[in-house]
Structure formats: C-alpha cells, structure tokens
Request: fold
Amino acid sequence: MAGGKINKNGMLKAATIVEVVVALVIIVVVFGMAMMIFANVTQQAISTKKIRATAVLRNVLLKAEQSRQLPQEAFSQDGFRVIPVVKPFESGTGLSEFYLTAYDENQQEIAKVSEIMINNDNVKP
Reply:
C-alpha cells in the first residue's frame, strides 16, 4: 500500500495516510519509552562525582577518628558542602552515631556515610 500511485485528482488513498499516522505513533511511543529507560539508567549510575564525594567523606571520618574531634558545623571541602550530624546511639551509652552528608553546588545529596564512635572527653554528641 505504501508507495501507491496518486489518483488523477491528486489525492492519496486514505489507507496510506492511516498507515503513516500509525507508523508515526509507534515511532513516538518507542522513542518515548527509550528516553525514559535512558534517563533512569543514567540517573542511577555511579558517577565519578559520587565516588569523589564518598572518598571526601571517608577522609573526613578518618581525620575525625585520628584527631578525636568531630566537626560540628557544615563546611566545604573539594567542591562539596559537607554537613555533619552527631546523635547518641540508641542502644549504648558512651556511643555516638556520626553522619556525614555531601551536597553538590545544586544542593543535591551526592553521598552519605555514617559510623558509630566511642565517646570520650573531647567527643560529645
């Protein structure tokens, strides 16, 4: 049917127009589904930014353990805004839960790490 001849009056058969419209609808639906899948995969992929942010947070945790001083205020490091939160651990006295969260320049959460630490004189939740 596609590629049929044009009538004497210069009009196409209605079937060819319907075929073209159906083909366009199918192409648009398939393209839309492909874009949704692509967006979902790229959003969930581990990016270098997430890896860098996790490395920065692990480094901050390591420094806090070595110096026995937990940061209390939000600070910036390597292009990330790091927000520390210290909470008492629910089941044990003398323990604190230390959370670090890294945000990018668009204020989107990039990475989060947590660790349970033993309290001493210098470390207070």
Remarks:
- The beta strands are 75-77, 80-88, 95-103, 109-118.
